[in-house]
Amino acid sequence: MSLTKSERRQRIKFRIRKIVNGTAAKPRLSVFRSNKEIYVQLIDDVNGVTLLAASSRDKGFDTKGTAIEVAAAVGKVVAEKAQKAGITEVTFDRGGNLYHGRIKSLAEGAREAGLKF
After folding, report:
1. What is the pLDDT of residues 63-114, one digit of tens each?
2. Which residues form a coiled coil (predicted)?
């Protein structure tokens, strides 16, 4: 019997989380993608704290354009917030999603805005 799509994604997610950890100096950039929106958090796993977050649902955020363009804009916003907080390096946690489409666009947008990972 094969795995369902959600079970397969959950296995991938656990496999990634065994390796990827965040600290205060180098937090984990965690991505959650729903069908309509995209959410990003910078997490310090040592203290169990979310340092900052951004999403396509934030007030004042322009959601015009394709989903890929919106994801790139969210990546730029989270990178700018991180720069203001003094964070330059992060570890990337794609949350079990494949690295293409909106996830790739978000990562490239964050890199363009100055985050290193």
Report:
1. 789 999 999 999 999 999 999 999 999 999 999 999 999 999 999 999 999 9
2. none
Contact 47, 58 (CB under 8 A): no
Average pLDDT over residues 39-55: 96
What's the pLDDT score for residue 60? 82
85: CB partners within 8 A, 6+ apart: 42, 51, 52
Tokens of 115: 């985050």
Report how far residue 56's alpha carbon sits from residue 97's, in angstroms, rounded to the nearest whole number.
18
Q: How far, in Å, are 6, 80, 96, 111 from residue 42 at the CA level?
A: 24, 12, 17, 14
Going by C-alpha positions, the residue among 25, 10, 34, 5 that lies closest to residue 102 is: 34
- Domains, in order of start, for the chain: 5-113 (3.30.420.100)
